[in-house]
Amino acid sequence: MTHPRHGLVLLVAILVLAATVPGVACYSGLMLIPTTDTVGAKQFGVEFQVDGSIPTPKADTYILNTEVGITDRIEAGVDFDLSKDAEPRVLFNGKYVLLKRAGGTQALAIGVCGVGEHVKASPYLVGTQYFGFVRGHLGAIGVDGKTRWFVGADRAMTDKLTLMADYTSGDENFSSLGASYQFTDHVGLLAGAQFPNEGGDTLFTVHLVINGPWAK
To answer: What are the pLDDT digits (tens) for 41-85?
Structure first.
């Protein structure tokens, strides 16, 4: 098992390396906010993401998200924005779970997303509490030099279907409602709606999620 101190050193090393290349990955979380979840040791996740506006569906954002579990407490990933005129096209994230109670009822994690060339990275702190019927998430994130708080909740309705909702403070941010459905052990779908805090068009997001082991 990786010692927590060794894991923190490894995460810092990853972030330093990532900051030197053009290049947020889609961290493990809800529709919009990070949680204390990770993809797991020696596991990978790939998401084909399409975003756009409604009520007349019009897609304008296409992203390939990737995530790799280095240990059970550490994950890192890279996103590739394939949208027209996207800049930058490559972004990075990393997450380290500081504390985790046996059974996963409570956890605390730190991370950073949006690491790339000519963009300001967003560090965050998030805690998760399991209440028996629902999980709650609370944290803070840096957005363009401002500290924003966020809150969210998710509930597994069945072993395949999970409902979720979240909110991030600030006029530039959103609240969201969504659901994920796991078709098989390795293929799932995440979809939902995003509502701008300052008003405007409601947005949609759809993620085709593929995951599995990258090493034995």
So the answer is: 999 999 999 999 987 778 989 999 999 999 999 999 999 999 888
Answer yes or no: are the C-beta atoms of 141 and 174 closer than 8 Å.
no
* pLDDT, tens only, 109-144: 999 998 988 888 999 999 999 998 999 999 999 998
- Distance set, CA 203 to CA 59, 63, 68, 107 (Å): 9, 15, 28, 31
Domains and CATH numbers, the chain: 4-206 (2.40.160.40)
Average pLDDT, stretch 194-209? Answer: 93
Q: What is the pTM of this model?
A: 0.84
